[in-house]
Amino acid sequence: MEKKHNHKDCMQALRPIRDTLDVINGKWKLQIIISLNAGNKRFTEIERSIPKLTSKVLAKELKELEQNGLVERVVKDTYPVSIEYYPTPYTNTLNPVVESLKDWGENHRKHIFGSSAEAPKVE
Q: Are 61 and 26 in contact (CB under 8 A)?
């Protein structure tokens, strides 16, 4: 006989997924992490590497990523003061998640558009 799950079981299973999505959700967070991993450290470097990303949104997203332990903000004692951003070692724990999302997305495109059809380009 199949065991039925109650609401508490479902919520317990969904909570960690919801937590993950809260941290990486949005149009810009993964792009920012990818930019940092590519070596962009300065605010303007990150901003220029991601088309259509505004300064205001970048500042907000960097702050949230820092609060979640994925980005380290380093203030350099130079004149003028410079600030650099680095992915933390904890950021690497997202690699399997991002890889799984990429694989699923590729398979989904094939499922929807077919393997021979040209899928619409995303900007």
A: yes
